[in-house]
Description:
Elements: H1 4-18, H2 20-39, H3 46-81, H4 84-89, H5 94-102, H6 109-117, H7 123-162, H8 167-200, H9 216-220, H10 224-236, H11 252-258, E1 272-276, E2 279-282, H12 285-294, E3 302-303, E4 306-307, H13 319-329, H14 334-367, H15 388-397, H16 420-427, H17 448-453, H18 455-460, H19 469-479, H20 487-497, H21 505-518, E5 522-527, E6 530-535, H22 537-542, H23 560-566, H24 569-580, H25 586-593, H26 600-605, H27 610-629, H28 641-645, E7 649-650, H29 674-681
Antiparallel strand pairs: 1-2, 3-4, 5-6, 5-7
Helix pairs in contact: 1-3, 1-15, 2-3, 2-8, 3-7, 3-8, 3-11, 3-14, 7-8, 10-11, 10-14, 23-27, 24-27
The structure holds a DNA duplex.
Amino acid sequence: MMQESGTETKSNGSAIQNGSGGSNHLLECGGLREGRSNGETPAVDIGAADLAHAQQQQQQALQVARQLLLQQQQQQQVSGLKSPKRNDKQPALQVPVSVAMMTPQVITPQQMQQILQQQVLSPQQLQVLLQQQQALMLQQQLQEFYKKQQEQLQLQLLQQQHAGKQPKEQQQVATQQLAFQQQLLQMQQLQQQHLLSLQRQGLLTIQPGQPALPLQPLAQGMIPTELQQLWKEVTSAHTAEETTGNNHSSLDLTTTCVSSSAPSKTSLIMNPHASTNGQLSVHTPKRESLSHEEHPHSHPLYGHGVCKWPGCEAVCEDFQSFLKHLNSEHALDDRSTAQCRVQMQVVQQLELQLAKDKERLQAMMTHLHVKSTEPKAAPQPLNLVSSVTLSKSASEASPQSLPHTPTTPTAPLTPVTQGPSVITTTSMHTVGPIRRRYSDKYNVPISSADIAQNQEFYKNAEVRPPFTYASLIRQAILESPEKQLTLNEIYNWFTRMFAYFRRNAATWKGAIRTNLSLHKCFIRVEDEFGSFWTVDDEEFKRGRHIQRGRPRKYCPDENFDELVAHNPSLIKNMQSSHAYCTPLNAALQASMAENSIPLYTTASMGNPTLGNLASAIREELNGAMEHTNSNESDSSPGRSPMQAVHPVHVKEEPLDPEEAEGPLSLVTTANHSPDFDHDRDYEDEPVNEDME
DNA sequence: ATAGCATTAAACAAAT
DNA sequence: CATTTGTTTAATGCTA
């Protein structure tokens, strides 16, 4: 039933291939900085206050534009999530459902109708259709928004120049505005690129200039109360949206709409005029007249001889005819109102997305050790590698985190948002192909730093960490003060450190157990109080599995003699190990703990490290165990000679001749007091280990 | 095309 | 008897 794990890998790949993520992120990066630095510009005097205001306006314009881009990106990613391959194994019925879950706001009645009408189509086709529509709509919205903001910028620029402020300030403003304009230009280019990429991907088959899909359905799908709430948020929020986190209220539109005292504002035309019967009305005339009085050729809704009202695109010869058209076609009626609602929704979504991408950016910058401008943002994952199961598990394990969750900004909207991986992969260790997960072979085993850097993120976001189970288990063990954990403690570490592992316990717990058994590097040690696991980091680096098909506990066709025959040193080692079976010595433990630091020298020189020792003892015991286990339980303390001396049990394992050498003393119960064990066994709550 | 690895599921066993 | 802990195998998918 989990067979789709691999199939969704494809989706991940496609998401990455979309390639537009990079630009957006770069853009985001620049924009973020701008926004930050300007947003806190203090108003020194009257002129400065105006300046600050204007700057805010421009900031907002930038943000709006960014949001639009981001929204597009999100749409793309959502589309990427749904890989065609996955559908091969999924009942067609599920497709619309999944789509709806992922983008509930965009599922309009119309779209649903289409879905219903086109049952003959394959799920993939349905999805493509949906994506096309969404992309189209967004594209149009974006264009319109962009135009508006650009015009607003120009307006402000002119006004500033007319304001007759101190020359110095004026120059400053002009410079800044120039910079903003340049940025806007850049954004436009990015947008166009994005458009092209959309088209290339077949998401956008219709010319962007053509009328987009009607917007009314979207609005119709909304509940009046929701609209009211939305309106409230859009219009009344004076709160700074810089506090991204949970606050997703908009500032851009609000300030511009609401502050009638600022005549320079030209952005949005939406004014909360009346609210009757749960219906909102939009009033525009005043602002229009004002704006085009001063700038006859500049109107947010007018450009290139075309009415830019969403979904309109009517051709207007001149500005006057445009005004006529505006007043006649886009008067205060239900339709216009609905369109405004839609616009609000769009803005809301974009803001949400912006917040999320801000976090992502922050994480990226943090990871790259770039001084951040937003220290508060929560860290985000690196996702150096696109994990196959990442997308799958995320979508499957936390489906509810996909749709709504405006309140859970840490949870990625879609599991496919792996855009950063492109950047990080190249900037990180190897420039090689994106690896599915951390590869032990690359000398880049998972390090404490790797996990720690994103710790906060994974603690809160239900995103599957891009690390293998083995890496995580190792990390868990190494983080523990004694470098040893019981199975239950390992479980707890997982749930504590990763939100993702707070669900589907049966699955990942089973995986952990399997990994513990399967990987050579994990050594089970048993004492009279139970058993715990340690890690042999040298072995971990080797990344070897316990050989399959080799004699194992449940394989009857292998016996001790045979083992000894294959490993002449077995007996000797047993003896020596016996001699070394002393309580855990601190130095050894320390070196054990040090594992995070590769012990290349010892390894390369053939000197058995502690890990080797552990392996050796394991292997030796394996032989002995194999023999005695057949009849009785192997856990009764004191049964085996070794246990008699010291209650140490290790995982039985097929022998590896070349390693079964040298003395060894494995972790035992040196620092093990009964109460400690007890404590350990019942440590369910996130305790001290939470530190670090 | 193939081998090796990672993940997941499942069967089974032993211990608790 | 139910649950936990371990072991083992198989299937699947991905990467080198």
